[in-house]
């Protein structure tokens, strides 16, 4: 019997998949525990609609990320910091500060964990990469000055 899984079932499949299960297993275990529904025309249509909605969401988010990447790629942001006499910073410039500056200047909300940057402990210009979405990233520069 073909069934559409409502939740992940160990040894059978993941949520939203169309799988083939034995009649007794489906009727006595999957249906009573509300883990699956029979693969009739209505349920198949709902499954296809969910898949199309998920694909559309991924496509729009990817397009938005690519647009943002083109907009900010190669740009330079400036961060001011305090330093000692030899140009060595008190502390360092962190990914959190860079993320806040990107949001302030470009209006793009980013997670600090998506920014890959080495420790910035002196004045200068440094290159860093920001991952905007799966497979979409942009390279920017940060200028640290006083």
Mind explaining what this structure looks like?
This protein is an alpha+beta fold. It is 36% helix and 32% strand. It has two domains: 2-60, 3-Layer(aba) Sandwich (Ribosomal Protein L9, domain 1), CATH 3.40.5.10; 66-145, Ribosomal protein L9, C-terminal domain (Ribosomal Protein L9, domain 2, Roll), CATH 3.10.430.100. It is built from three helices and nine strands, in the order ββαβαββαββββ. The strands form three sheets. The chain has a four-stranded mixed beta sheet. A three-stranded antiparallel beta sheet has the order 2-1-3, with helices on one face.
Strand order of the largest sheet: 4-9-8-6
**Biggest β-sheet strands, sense, barrel:** 4 strands, mixed
Oligomer: single chain
Instruction: Write the element-wise H/E pattern from the N-terminal end onward.
Output: EEHEHEEHEEEE
Could you tell me the number of beta strands? 9
The tally of domains stands at: 2
């Amino acid at each position: 019997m073909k069934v559409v899984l409502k939740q992940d079932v160990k040894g059978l499949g993941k949520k939203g998949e169309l799988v083939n299960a034995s009649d007794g297993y489906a009727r006595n275990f999957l249906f009573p525990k509300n883990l699956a529904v029979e693969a009739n025309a209505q349920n198949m249509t709902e499954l296809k609609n969910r898949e199309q909605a998920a694909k559309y969401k991924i496509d729009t988010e990817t397009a938005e990320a690519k647009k943002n990447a083109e907009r900010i790629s190669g740009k330079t942001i400036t961060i001011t910091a305090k330093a000692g006499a030899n140009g060595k910073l008190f502390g360092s410039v962190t990914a959190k500060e860079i993320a806040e500056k990107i949001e302030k200047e470009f209006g793009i909300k980013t997670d600090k964990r998506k920014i890959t940057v080495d420790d910035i402990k002196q004045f200068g210009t440094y290159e860093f990469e920001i991952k905007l979405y799966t497979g979409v990233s942009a390279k920017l520069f940060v200028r640290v000055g006083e």
